[in-house]
Inverse folding.
């Protein structure tokens, strides 16, 4: 199964998640998964939902893992493992204003922390993308940032902020660049995603900002602020690396300028007297 996932280009995090789900299935029945029937696998999914009260996303991940195991690796007939989608309220994330973003950046305890958060916001990156940036990904001649193997295994380029480049050059005067833009202490690997999340959370608290959300809030702010500045949705879609424009359109609902530009009907001109 690991070989099949590797050949198909699934990420290491997907490998770990799928194998974890298959191990859970085998432990539940105390039998090898290839000796289980489709009905038994479906019953285990129901057990995750009803008895173990697992989150819907976790159960859906298990269903994907089982489909891969049985359909791809074991080559069995397609069994329609499924988990009913719950009815959940559609919650919009709390968006940081431009002023709040600057409060966060100015509250950073270290210059490297500020560069981590500034790079995330300036390029609208996912946390997995920003921690894996290499020094060579910053192209000062073309003023671009190369995002290698982003979500879906797709490379893309985003503009390199002149202000961000200046801050990096000042930092490199005292700390010469190495291979990774954000290396661990040994310099052998990039920092872990959890480290970047912790930097954002602690800095946000230091800045006195109580809005919910982790470091991904900077990506939300990037998209929303661009739309508020008048950028068209298709440009923002390409910068975010969204495959479908529908994923980008939701930021219209988060754009304060567009919402506030719509007047209340109470403020419309009064109708002429009868």
């Amino acid at each position: 199964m690991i070989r099949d996932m590797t050949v198909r280009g699934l990420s290491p995090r997907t490998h770990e998640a799928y194998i974890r789900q298959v191990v859970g299935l085998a432990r539940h029945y105390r039998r090898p998964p290839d000796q289980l029937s489709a009905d038994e696998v479906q019953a285990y999914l129901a057990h995750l939902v009803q008895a173990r009260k697992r989150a819907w996303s976790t159960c859906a991940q298990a269903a994907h893992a089982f489909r891969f195991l049985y359909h791809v690796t074991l080559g069995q007939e397609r069994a329609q493992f499924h988990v009913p989608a719950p009815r959940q309220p559609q919650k919009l994330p709390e968006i940081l204003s431009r002023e709040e973003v600057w409060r966060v950046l100015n509250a950073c305890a270290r210059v490297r922390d500020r560069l981590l958060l500034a790079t995330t916001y300036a390029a609208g990156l996912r946390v997995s993308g920003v921690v894996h940036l290499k020094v060579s990904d910053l192209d000062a001649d073309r003023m671009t940032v190369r995002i290698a193997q982003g979500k879906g295994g797709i490379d893309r380029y985003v503009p390199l902020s002149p202000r961000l480049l200046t801050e990096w050059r000042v930092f490199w005067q005292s700390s010469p660049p190495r291979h990774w833009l954000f290396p661990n202490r040994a310099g052998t690997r990039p920092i872990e995603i959890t480290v970047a999340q912790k930097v954002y959370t602690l800095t946000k608290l230091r800045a006195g900002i109580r809005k919910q959300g982790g470091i991904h809030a900077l990506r939300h702010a990037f998209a929303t602020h661009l739309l508020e500045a008048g950028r068209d949705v298709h440009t923002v879609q390409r910068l975010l690396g969204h495959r479908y424009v529908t994923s980008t359109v939701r930021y219209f609902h988060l754009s304060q300028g567009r919402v506030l530009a719509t007047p209340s009907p109470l403020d419309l001109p009064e109708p002429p007297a009868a």
